[in-house]
Amino acid sequence: MKEFNSLEDILDFAINEEQLAADFYTELAGKMKHQEMKNTFEQYALEELGHRAKLEAIKNGKKYKVSEAKIADLKIADYLLDVDVDKTNITYQEALILAMKKEKIAFRLYNDLASAAIDEPSKKLFLMLAQEEAKHKLRFEVEYDSNILTEN
Amino acid sequence: MERSEEYIKNERKQEWRVELQKKTKAKDRMAIERVEMHEMAPEERIKSQRVEVNIGLSKEEAMLEATRCMDCVNPTCMEGCPVSINIPKFIKNIERGDILGAAAVLKETSALPAVCGRVCPQEAQCEARCFYVEKLNLKSVAIGHLERFAADFERESGVISVPELAEPNGVKVAVIGSGPSGLSFAGDMAKSGYDVTVFEALHEIGGVLKYGIPEFRLPNAVVDVEIENLRKMGVKFITNYIVGQTASLDDLKKEGFKAFYVGSGAGLPRFMNIPGENSNGIMSSNEYLTRVNLMGADSEESDTPILRGKNVVVVGGGNTAMDSVRTAKRLGAERAMIVYRRSEEEMPARLEEVHHAKQEGIEFLTLTNPIEYIADDNHRVSQIKVQKMELGEPDASGRRRPIPMEGSEYTIDATVVVVAVGVSPNPLIPNSVEGLEVSKWGTIEVVKDKMQSSIPEVFAGGDIVRGGATVILAMGDGRKAAANMDVYLKEKYLSKKVEL
């Protein structure tokens, strides 16, 4: 597991992860055959950049707290098959699956890091990051629940 | 324009209407019990796909039910009708015994009254806005049953009226898709004098009315009569013609078509994307219903095969799921089951369909979600792994969303699985027409209420715009598109002398 020497280290890692996610979606947008899916992935990339900006603000001193309330987990992503990211005709359903699964992986990573953290400030920071990812995942799950599973 | 308040008021002041209003007191109208639709007995009807469940009303029953209608000054029921049928006028015609007159009123604004009388969710539309419901908290006038009665009476009488048509103007318009939206559009454009041709990809006219809705709910013969009526109005139909493949919109333009209405529907099935979903024996509801409804696979003589199973599971809770599971029962399933991940209250299917399904012995496994299909050595599905769900706390939208219960997984035996979790728009036109704006859902973007796309001469409506809705909403789109395309074409070709 990656070692972190300071809270700044942790934030730098998380900021880089958001940037990598944005790059991933930008690359996907470039590959898509249809304009509406290009727009979709460009939108996802922008959302990731928004997450990065939020973390940068924390790095620059903005206060944060770990919410007591549990973020709902609809677990939709858990049972779905992976999407082939080499395709150039990804559908919106697949785009949502892709995004849900990415956020789930990030959530698990920060949750694991929080469990492994030895000092309280690091633990708190990882938990906050995990909560952020859980919120992002929920945003995609709710969209999937409302628009894809319309009759289920 | 014809639906203006003034028009409605003037119609209500017609001598015969005033006489009827005076003839029966309001309290006597209210004292009449709402009529019950007669139904074929469940044990009889499940023997055949072709036996209609609802039998209809007698003339006496219809006239009595029509007497319940108060002929309101402000008929709010009409606001609930996407095609603006003059509901009090047709009902009052039934009350006075002029059933053919009632049928003619329906046809003023609806190209498919016998269809709508059968499959419209009236309880959520016109009937939900009825005076009895809104002001008295009583059962609404049975508008849907009366609509069906009037349309059936006319058909059975053999005296079928054709709406008044404007002088032909020589402008050619093309309709892509012959479902309810396209047919409704075609009817209105023909009435306005246009030269209308409907292009249909399949070998039969009717779209989802034929391939999607089983004959026990909507007999094909009923649809055919309504189509024949459009033919009499001059609408031309070309089958086995896939616009976007057989010919492009540009090809059709070269043949003289000046504008297009895309009503190509949402025929692309959606799957859940869970492990094992590619196993044999698992199919979409579109495939399952098309084989039976359109290709007659339930008949021994049909060349089209259909999988029959002892245990059939249908995944989903909409009308399509109900149609599929009831079809499975009629094909001989011992256990025909609905697996739906929310609770029964949240099922999008009409209450009537759920009620009929239960009468027919359909099992409902609600708050249950498939997570994996298990196949045998021949890759044929044999079991479904499901998990129990519970409804979570209401979220920001106020909706309670289903959440899996840890450790609640179990398996169900199933040799046939029909997936009815929703549909996506047919991608052919959205993907093949340059410059056509399409949403991330694959639907065609149109100016709301005008139904005009990013290409001025291309209008669209129904499921290709909505992504999956009801027959009547699709028909409403067709009417709006016709009215607006008429304005567009008149400005462009008919207001000045332009060579066509």
TrEMBL record, chain A:
CDD domains, alphabetized: Ferritin_like_AB
Gene3D superfamilies associated with the record: 1.20.1260.10
Residues spanning the signal sequence: none
GO molecular function: metal ion binding; oxidoreductase activity
A Pfam family recorded for this sequence: Rubrerythrin
Stretches assigned to the Rubrerythrin diiron-binding domain: 9-141
InterPro entries: Ferritin-like, Ferritin-like_SF, Rr_diiron-bd_dom
Record's protein name: Rubrerythrin
Species per Swiss-Prot/TrEMBL record: Labilibaculum filiforme
UniProtKB/TrEMBL annotation, chain B:
MF-aspect GO terms: iron-sulfur cluster binding; oxidoreductase activity
Transmembrane stretches, start-end: none
InterPro entries per record: DPD_II (IPR028261), FAD/NAD-bd_sf (IPR036188), FAD/NAD-binding_dom (IPR023753), Helical_ferredxn (IPR009051), SudA-like (IPR006004)
Protein name in UniProt: Glutamate synthase (NADPH), homotetrameric
Biological source species: Labilibaculum filiforme
Lineage: Bacteria, Pseudomonadati, Bacteroidota, Bacteroidia, Marinilabiliales
Dihydroprymidine dehydrogenase domain: residues covered: 51-158
Limits of the FAD/NAD(P)-binding domain: 172-478
